[in-house]
Automatic annotation (TrEMBL):
Single GO biological process annotation from the record: zinc ion transport
Gene of this entry: znuC
Entry-linked Pfam families: ABC_tran
Gene3D superfamilies: P-loop containing nucleotide triphosphate hydrolases
Highest taxon, organism lineage: Bacteria
Protein name: Zinc ABC transporter ATPase
SMART domains: AAA
Annotated keywords: ATP-binding, Cell membrane, Ion transport, Membrane, Nucleotide-binding, Translocase, Transport, Zinc, Zinc transport
Annotated PROSITE patterns: ABC_TRANSPORTER_1, ABC_TRANSPORTER_2
Molecular function terms from GO: ATP binding; ATP hydrolysis activity
InterPro entries assigned: AAA+_ATPase, ABC_transporter-like_ATP-bd, ABC_transporter-like_CS, Metal_Ion_Import_ABC, P-loop_NTPase
Length: 245
């Protein structure tokens, strides 16, 4: 099982404020790890650390040498009057290994190739961003709130697609989500973050954890029966989360 990323006792500070502390985790190929947490918990900062867009103030961050990462940002800001088709937008990405048509086919969006980027619905836009991230055949897909701006039905479909892609392409997935109950059928492991790791493990475990209930309230728990998670998982095949110190 190929290890992709390992964080050991990582901390992050900015302007004298603690943003993250004592974060230890590993992520392997074929594993989906979801970060949940309230606003300001440090979820995007953790993603930025893994992307090396910022540097840890302490601890160690290891990445597999030459790791190919496909990144789906929280939001894409496009000039509303810029004439840009989906195919043109996708052809602008660097390090491509797939053709535009192949990448669109992977997310079932072939018919959108000639559509204007500005005309896409929220769900279509997220699929196109996902297709773009797949173009360099990533070993690790990083998605920051991939279901933002998508209705509930579309969110469930999108998370199912991410799971399917991870299975097919055997890539690791690190994603941020606000909705544990929507993502639980499509993730192997969950970290509940609030500056530090409050709890972690399989989604059902986190959903029932008192720390999770404290952060998100009881309503989350009552909805979980609908989204029971099924996967034949062998613990050795999924990344673990370790508390250090
Ligand atoms: N460069 C920075 N300088 C100072 N503070 C920062 C910096 N980057 C992030 N922060 C602060 O760190 C905290 C965590 O921010 P972050 O964006 O990682 O949270 P988040 O969990 O992704 O939040 P949300 O769910 O609202 O997107 C916030 O209080 C934010 O204001």
């Amino acid at each position: 099982m190929t290890k992709l990323v390992e964080l050991t006792d990582v901390g992050l500070e900015a302007d004298g404020n603690i943003i993250l502390e004592r974060i230890s985790l590993t992520l392997h190929r074929g594993e989906i790890l979801t970060i949940v947490g309230p606003n300001g918990a440090g979820k995007s900062s953790l993603v930025k650390l893994v992307l090396r867009l910022c540097e840890a103030s302490r601890g160690q961050l290891w990445r597999k040498p030459g790791l190919r990462i496909g990144y789906v940002p929280q939001k894409l800001h496009l000039d509303p009057v810029l004439p840009l088709t989906v195919a043109r937008f996708m052809s602008l990405s660097h390090g491509r290994r797939l053709s535009v048509a192949q990448a669109l086919a992977r997310v079932g969006a072939e018919r959108l190739a000639e559509r204007s980027m500005q005309a896409l619905s929220g769900g279509e836009m997220q699929r196109i961003l996902l297709a773009r991230a797949l173009m360099m055949e990533p070993e690790l897909l990083i998605l920051d709130e991939p279901a933002q701006g998508v209705d509930v039905h579309g969110q469930t479909e999108l998370y199912a697609l991410i799971k399917q892609l991870s299975d097919q392409l055997h890539c690791g997935v690190l994603m941020v989500s606000h909705d544990l109950h929507l993502v639980m059928a499509s993730t192997h492991r969950v970290i509940c973050l609030n500056q530090h790791i409050c709890c972690h493990g399989e989604p059902e475990h986190v959903a029932r954890h008192p720390e999770f209930a404290r952060l998100f309230g009881r309503p989350e728990l009552t909805q979980l029966a609908v989204y029971t998670h099924h996967h034949a998982c062998d613990d050795e095949h999924h990344g673990d989360v370790r508390h250090v110190g």
